[in-house]
Amino acid sequence: MNTFKQAAVEILKKSKEPLHYSEITRLALESGILETEGATPEASMIAQITVDIKNKKSGSDFVKTAPGVFALNKNKKEIKQTVKIIEAEKEEEEKIIVEGGYTGKAGEHLVCSELIFRGFNASIMSVDVGMDIVAVKENQLYGIQVKTSNLNKFDTYIFDVRKVSFERHSTSNIYYIFVLHSLTKNNYLILPFHEMEKKMHDGAILEILNGKKYRVNIKFRNDKVYLGTMNHEMGYFLNNWSIIK
Q1: Under DSSP, is residue 213 helix (H, G, I), strand (E, B) or coil?
Q2: What would the pLDDT profile of 134-187 be if each residue is shown by its tens digit?
Q3: Which residues, including other chains, have CB under 8 Å from residue 80's CB and lie 6 or more apart?
Q4: Are residues 121 and 48 in the same domain?
Q5: Which residues, 6+ apart, have CB-to-CB distance to 105 below 8 Å?
Q6: pTM of the prediction?
Q7: How wide is the angle at C-alpha 174 spanned by C-alphas 97 and 210, nearest 5°?
Q8: In terms of domains, do 129 and 12 share one?
């Protein structure tokens, strides 16, 4: 997985001109170069770029050209990686990992609670086998994959699904639940496995990272929910827990 700095370098190479850190983040996420479940990817981006400039100075990959705007450092000098630089970079990366991990776990607990309230016997898997939750109701077994995202500044929820995991669990009793978290309300887009396959075929869900992952973009526009593009309205699947049967 690319770090924020690696993603920023790739985006700035393609743009060939300075960009605001929020634009760098948007392009990195939309292109699949960057993956994160963190609530504030823009803040993580500017933090990593700023720390890199502060610690490496003329040896940084970046230069600041205006407030919040960065370009690649064409006069970059080779510097020795000191303990201070290594520790500073590690600290920033750990902050991002912890943030994303907490977000994912919070989503799993939300979904597990919702299932229990609806009469399922549900439990979170303690070992990662590709499914986050196993649920049973009326002697039927269901595998639940939970993906959680916070609303970003572009009013979009972004999720990534590993292709190998998706193909490993290709049965009708598998459901993907996308937790759409905002400050006012949590929504759940509940998609059966066959619906995920259909939306991949229709182009609403795209392959990224040379086919290693699937990118799922979900957005609300005019009180309707869409998957990928405005051609794929998904209102039927929003908060419809009766789909799991």
Answers
A1: strand
A2: 999 999 999 999 999 888 777 889 888 888 888 877 788 999 999 998 878 899
A3: none
A4: no
A5: none
A6: 0.63
A7: 55
A8: no
CATH value at residue 197: 3.40.1350.10
Length of the chain: 245
Burial class (CB in 10 A: 0-12, 13-18, 19+), 91: exposed
Please report the beta strands in the chain, taking only residues with DSSP state E, as ranges in sequence order.
19-20, 62-66, 69-72, 121-124, 133-137, 140-150, 156-162, 174-181, 186-192, 206-208, 213-221, 224-227
- Whether residues 52 and 114 share a domain: the answer is no
Shared domain check, 197 and 124 = yes
**Tally of structural domains, the chain:** 2
Does residue 222 sit in the same domain as residue 156?
Answer: yes
Domain that holds residue 180: 103-243
60 and 154 part of one domain: no
| Rounded-to-integer distance, Cα 148 and Cα 157, Å | 9
pLDDT in tens, 15-51: 999 999 999 988 988 877 887 656 577 888 888 898 8
The CATH number of residue 51's host domain is 1.10.10
**Residue 52 has which token pair?**
């890199």
